[in-house]
Amino acid sequence: MKAYILIKESIPLGFAMVSAAHAGAALGQANDPDSKEWRAGIWRKCVCKVSDAEFEAAKIHPNRMVLTESALDNQEVALVFYPRQEWPKGFGFYRLYK
């Protein structure tokens, strides 16, 4: 079981780091059964860098939260996808944030 965090590549690095931290906090507070099971084990997650188009396309998938950044005029900066066992094929092609 793992979670995905997608961060827009257009976001400056400092804001990307803050977004990833906020995403981790959101995952730590989720109350759905899968998140509780995930927290009881190893917290596997993938943090990926995505284009604006990939970001918009990913919004069709359920069980997610959109993060915004007030310092960037409330721009959408990250998507947090709650943990699950199986992921749509497209998730395997996102680039890891390095």
How many domains? The number is 1
CATH architecture: 3-Layer(aba) Sandwich
Order of helices and strands: EHHEHEEE
**Strand coverage percent:** 25-35%
**Biggest pleated-sheet summary:** 5 strands, mixed
DSSP helix fraction:
25-40%
Q: What's the count of strands?
A: 5
Shape: globular
Stretches where pLDDT is under 50 for at least 5 consecutive residues are none
The structure class reads alpha+beta
Q: Looking across the biggest beta sheet, what order are the strands in?
A: 3-4-1-2-5
Number of helical segments with 4 or more residues: 3
CATH topology (level 3) name: Bit1
CATH class: Alpha Beta
Head-to-tail CA distance between termini: 22 Å
Mean pLDDT: 92
Using the CA coordinates, give the radius of gyration.
13 Å
Task: Report on the architecture of this protein.
With 98 residues, the chain is α+β, with helices and mostly antiparallel strands. It has a single domain (2-96), classed as Bit1 (3-Layer(aba) Sandwich). It is built from three helices and five strands; from the N terminus they run E-H-H-E-H-E-E-E. The two termini are 22 Å apart. The mean pLDDT is 92.
